[in-house]
Design brief:
Aminopeptidase; 6-stranded mixed β-sheet
Length: about 140
């Protein structure tokens, strides 16, 4: 093994994610000839306060739209805000050339919400309490 220092931490410095992502994106671009990975976010702000309440964070990459995180506060669930967030994100992903969306949710979170939006389960990994699982879903855009 080459002389390197490996650090295990639960508190990586802010620059760690960008250093790793930048290195991986550069490698991928060399392999494919395509600068492919772009962040995509739809942010949810309070109309009166401007406070950031939630939203969606994801990315587009080589024709795929990855939904990494989405959060809608309890008091706004069922109001249509979550569906609108997803609709806007998917529209932007299509504009960027994506043909598929991919996400995962946990059994107690929102699999029914995503299924109502046209997402289909393609895999499941059991974890945590016996009745829980990570549910992997996809949708054609």
């Amino acid at each position: 093994m080459p002389e390197v220092l490996l650090t295990l931490t639960d508190a990586p410095p802010p620059e760690a994610e960008s250093a790793i992502a930048d290195g991986l994106n550069a490698f991928n671009e060399r392999q494919t000839g395509i600068a492919h990975s772009r962040p995509l976010a739809v942010l949810l702000h309070g109309a009166n306060t401007g406070a950031l309440l939630g939203g969606l964070v994801g990315r587009t990459s080589l024709g795929l739209f990855f939904v990494d995180l989405i959060f809608v506060p309890d008091e706004l669930r069922g109001s249509g805000v979550g569906s609108e967030i997803m609709s806007r994100a998917e529209a932007e992903a299509v504009a960027r050339g994506c043909t598929q969306a991919v996400l995962y949710t946990i059994a107690f979170q929102a699999p029914g919400f995503y299924q109502r939006l046209g997402y289909q389960v393609f895999g499941e990994v059991r974890s945590g309490p016996a009745d829980q699982a990570r549910i992997f879903m996809t949708k054609s855009l």
